[in-house]
TrEMBL record:
Identification of the protein by name: Mobile element protein
Domain of life of the source: Bacteria
Cross-referenced InterPro entries: Transposase_IS66_Orf2
Name of a matching Pfam family: TnpB_IS66
Organism: Thauera aromatica K172
Amino acid sequence: MIRIEALWLSVAPLDMRAGMDTLLAQVMRVFGQAQPHHAYLFSNRRGTRLKVLVHDSFGVWPACRRLNQGRCQWAGGQGGVVLTRVQFDALVLGLLR
């Protein structure tokens, strides 16, 4: 298992076609740097898809999730916020409606 010490959410929507370089550039732009053992979560404009980028101190791991029901909604803008583990699990498991 990859150890994750901090979870971050970017409130700005991301084009889900973005590859590794674009995701990493977005992490740098929003959070300043990609720190080891941190996970960075992004969503598309409609809030129906999620991408997470995990830095494991050796490299980065991307993962994608499509929500079958409901949408993620949060205030737009720039920047990011820290998520608790419970909040992150709710987003990734699709518990939000």
